[in-house]
Amino acid sequence: MSETPPSSTNPNIEDSRSPTWRRATPWAIGAAVVLLLIILFAVFSSSRRSPDERALGELGFIKATCSNSDGSAAPPDSACLALRAKPTLTASEVAAAIPHLKDSDRKIELNLANTQIDNLDPLKELDTLDSLDLTGTPVWNIDALKDMHSLKRLVLHRTEVENIAALKGLTGLQSLTLWDTRVSNLDALKNLTDLRQLDLRDTQVRDLDPLEDLPHLETLKLGGARNVRDIDALGQLTALKTLDLNETQIDSIAALKKLRDMQALFLANTPLRDIDVIKGMPSLKTLVLDGSKVDDIDAVRGLRQLDTLVLARTQVTSIDALKELTALQRLNLADTRVENIDALKDLKSLRMLNLFRTRVRNIDSLKSLTNLQELYLANTPVEDIDVLKGLTGLRELVLYGTKARNVDELKAALPKTRIVW
């Protein structure tokens, strides 16, 4: 008699007893094959379309950090390649790099600053050029850029450029720096409605009318553009948050009355006297009036977000308007005729106070300003400084030119403070 146990005549019963892995194997193999194909495709695609970074390095390029449109560093992004040229880079090396870059599907940020590159024609083939920095180069002709519609950031600081007509079709441009160039005509910017940042410092610009229809402009720098006298064209730029008018010929800012979102306003070394219009700028955080003709600051009373105020070399004598500005962190009153600083006694957020060459004699009101880190009292009539012994957060205290008494005792009380005496 056979000792082999009889097998079941029901095939379904036998299948149900089969291990699970046997039934799952065909599906697992199929999935693995698909995954492998995807990986191979990605590797192959990457090898075809990613620039040869080793070759670019041999040509004189260094891998850098990608940036946002305003120039700040952006988070690492595999879709972006930032390259910085060595100062010795030549035009022929730039031309040799183009074949490695032109077929890339990554956006390219190219920094050619401080090289001797003066011909931009090789760049015409870069369809994915997102940012171009030409700071300090001898470039004067930018016609090669006229069809670079991918360009979002362009820096022409300290170049020989005068004519920017080539930019008129670059409607995707978000940031443009023309600082310290001989540019005077801005007509090419009329239709660049996506512009966010525009730097025109130390240019020959006079007429600002081409800027009046740039609805997204947030930062405009005109400092040192000494031909600027009329800012009426800026009155409709309601997105403006930062405006630099330092060292211009502006004597009125009445045109800015609708700019309620303004956060930083720079008016140093201008003939400006009246600042009443800032009453309508509740978000203002920085106000610089250094060297202006301003003598009345009552307009700042309601600016509860103001954290930086520069009044140095103005005609201001009274600072009573500052009493309730509890967010104020930095205050510069140097070279003014201010005598009384009692208005500061409750400004607990103050970190820097400059009273250099003022008429302040009594500093008792500083006793409770325990967050104060920098205090400049040089060339003032201050004598009694005992009140400062409790300001243990002071990092720097400047007393030269005063008749301060008991300085040695103060040094003992503030061992971590650098005292210049």
Automatic annotation (TrEMBL):
The chain crosses the membrane at residues 24-44. Gene3D superfamilies: Ribonuclease Inhibitor. It comes from the Bacteria. Keywords: Leucine-rich repeat, Membrane, Repeat, Transmembrane, Transmembrane helix. Pfam families: LRR_4. The keyword Transferase does not apply. Residues 1-20 are annotated as: Disordered. Residues 1-13 have a biased composition (Polar residues). This is Leucine-rich repeat domain-containing protein. It comes from Paraburkholderia hospita. The lineage of its organism: Bacteria, Pseudomonadati, Pseudomonadota, Betaproteobacteria, Burkholderiales.
